[in-house]
Specification:
With 165 residues, this protein is of the alpha+beta class. The chain has four helices and seven strands; from the N terminus they run E-H-H-E-E-E-H-E-H-E-E. The two termini are 22 Å apart. The relative contact order is 0.16.
Length: 165
Amino acid sequence: MKSNLHIRPVTLKDTQELVNIYAYYVLNTSITFEYDVPSIEVFKDRIIKITQKYPYLVAILNDEIVGYAYATSYKERAAYDWSVETTVYVKQDKHAQGIGKALYHQLESELKNKQIVNMLACITFPNPKSIEFHSKLGFTTVGHFPKVGFKFNEWRDIVWMQKVI
């Protein structure tokens, strides 16, 4: 991890930069199944909803937001309250610099403090880099669902990975 990397909670002032990071993935990849880049207002609403219950973190390198990670409810029923779905995005030109790892380590620490037991990651398949990333962080594959999403005129599988913390 870069020594000048700083992780902090998100603020609404970060929204435009987060949308800019996310837009690349929406427009160019099947990593997200979203077809259209969300508006600033929609993204702000998502941040507000998530931060009412879970951590939402940004990574800053040399005064630039270079990634973000957050947790959301896995399911809405109370029995699932100890499990979360995790998400991480790193700016396209900043991969393989330890940013995602640093974000996930901080996210895991904050989730432990909230008595969360399970971190779950839903990953578009194939996506060997994401699967390797999560595996190195202690996640294991617990499910594979074929043809769950349709993007760029192709059916896409998903893989669920889990880490008990």
